[in-house]
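Structure tokens please, single chain.
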Amino acid sequence: MDFVTYDVADDVATLTISRPQALNALNSQVLSDLGMALDQAEADQARCLLITGAGRAFVAGADITEMAAMTPRQAEAFSRHGSAIFRRLEKLPIPSVAAVNGFALGGGCELAMSCDIRLASEKAVFGQPEVGLGVTAGFGGTQRLTRLVAPGVANELLFSGGRMNADRAFQVGLVNAVYPVDELLAAAVKLATSIALQSPVAVRATKQAVTLGRQTDIDTALAIESAQFASCFGTQDQVEGMGAFMEKRPPAPFTGC
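Here you go.
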């Protein structure tokens, strides 16, 4: 991978988009590298995924120099490529945490929104500026933003091409918390590690219930939850977790079995 670095520690896989000379802009190669890194995280059976950017940007957007000369057919293929990678990230069986260290514009905002949890530094900036380039968002921005924040807030960003600072992103619920720049990564690692320490069986079942349930009606969603709840019983994690609770002791490390 030329533009994504990959590391695993304490069952947390960290993906760092590293194309700082272009503010980590997403071209076709970066997207392919990101897909390879997701493959590796699954192969390593990581329990949580952390995504951040190198330098002063998370991801400043898709690569305009690559897009400028695209035909409509090429543009659709590029959009589908990015959307497929981001959807795969969204559907990973493990939780994902975005540590948004700087600019998260266009494709960068869309990448962050594909993660389950978003933390931001005080210097983070969010936005979907595509209309100022004569195009729409192409990697899910028109769909995820309207699902994560109030419709009027989403529409304002999408229609005006404006930007949102970290404090405003926190106020509207786009990010969970805002940290000083030099504290962001440590906070993200702490959160990801706390997730990795929980029962992998239960965390995966919980994510499945959340992901599938929000795409359907409440009655179907409750049935999905019941099925995921039942799937945990009889596992080593469930036996150990409940046994430790009844015996008033900390559980042994969960095995994910």
